[in-house]
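User: Just a sanity check before I run the rest of the batch. Below are the structure tokens for the first item. I only need the designed sequence back.
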């Protein structure tokens, strides 16, 4: 089974600080600790998953390896001495043996994928929206154009591998090809490093992107922006940016996939006698007829008044839950009227309060059995 992205497990961005990582992990650990959730294998699994993610992301070296190579970069069976270079060397050896290594670049890597958590309102999710975001990313240095060399100079050919990026070592009858330890597979050496990027060829930047949110997106939906992740290393392709949608809780509606739910308070009079009332929808107001003798908890379904999902052909429904509201702060006259009403109800309670009579009969049967 494929492992989930460690940043996704903790619910943090890829540029999260050490304090953010620690704080988020502690919260998840407290929530899903087995001692707090006995007999709940799902919580135990979430706890172990969060613990594993924290162990990797809290270690700067392991985090760097994970950011560059993913889960394989922190797999003990793939890495050498726990370093990112060990992982690169392993694959460098394999490809060097297959292709001979002439002119190869074992240190050409695809840029890291990035994650951005975006909060949007229910209305924006239903109708779609466009918004600008700023994300931190590693981009090619504009001074040296990614070469890592000081202005006016250029990287020189590595004398150890003659620019091949790999060296051949003779061990008895076997000839082994591996990544050049001097240039780390780039084939070039920067004698005079760029003052801005210190020879790395990349610098941390903030870039602004326009994100189009399609209508109907739901909680935790991901929008992929191809090529908008970090720039690759030594000419490698850029990674992707994944925008993860989080819905801001709404004051009126609760979303359940494509359906919407809301509560509608009504008075005793409306519930007893019936009336035509207006209820809110995401597109305005709609009228419904509340029949006489409506009970609290009655649900009215309005077809097509929900949300049309990204992959749906039709809109969901709006489910309106009736809540009969008990009057408060009664006047003396109101109390008198309620006493009169209660006296009339008691004259024929089985007729006026059938649910109460049915319930009392069940209670009587329970105690007389």
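Assistant: Here's the designed sequence for the first item:
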């Amino acid at each position: 089974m494929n492992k989930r992205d460690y940043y996704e497990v903790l619910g943090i961005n890829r540029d999260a600080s050490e304090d953010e990582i620690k704080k988020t992990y502690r919260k998840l650990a407290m929530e899903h600790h087995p001692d707090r959730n006995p007999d709940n294998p799902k919580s135990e699994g979430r706890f172990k998953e969060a613990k594993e993610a924290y162990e990797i992301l809290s270690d700067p070296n392991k985090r760097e390896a994970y950011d560059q190579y993913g889960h394989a970069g922190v797999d003990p069976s793939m890495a050498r001495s726990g370093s990112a270079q060990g992982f690169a060397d392993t694959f460098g050896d394999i490809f060097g043996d297959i292709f001979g290594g002439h002119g190869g670049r074992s240190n050409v890597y695809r840029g890291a994928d990035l994650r951005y958590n975006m909060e949007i309102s229910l209305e924006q999710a239903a109708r779609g929206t466009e918004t600008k975001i700023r994300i931190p990313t590693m981009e090619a240095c504009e001074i040296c154009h990614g070469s890592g060399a000081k202005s006016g100079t250029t990287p020189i050919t590595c004398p150890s591998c003659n620019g091949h990026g790999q060296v051949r070592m003779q061990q008895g009858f076997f000839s082994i090809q591996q990544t050049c330890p001097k240039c780390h597979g780039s084939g070039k050496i920067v004698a005079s490093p760029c003052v801005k990027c210190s020879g790395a060829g990349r610098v941390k930047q903030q870039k602004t992107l326009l994100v189009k949110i399609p209508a109907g997106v739901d909680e935790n939906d991901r929008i992929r922006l191809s090529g908008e992740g970090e720039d690759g290393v030594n000419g490698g392709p850029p990674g992707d940016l994944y925008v993860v949608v989080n819905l801001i809780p709404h004051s009126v509606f609760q979303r359940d996939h494509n359906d919407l739910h809301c509560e509608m308070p009504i008075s005793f009079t409306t519930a007893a006698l019936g009336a035509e009332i207006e209820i809110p929808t995401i597109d305005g107001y709609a009228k419904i007829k509340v029949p006489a003798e409506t009970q609290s908890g009655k649900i009215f379904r309005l077809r097509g008044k929900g949300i049309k999902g990204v992959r749906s052909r039709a809109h969901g429904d709006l489910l309106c839950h009736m809540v009969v509201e008990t009057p408060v702060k009664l006047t003396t006259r109101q109390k008198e009227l309620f006493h009169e009403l209660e006296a009339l109800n008691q004259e024929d309670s089985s007729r006026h309060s059938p649910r109460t009579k049915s319930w009392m009969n069940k209670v009587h049967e329970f105690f007389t059995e």
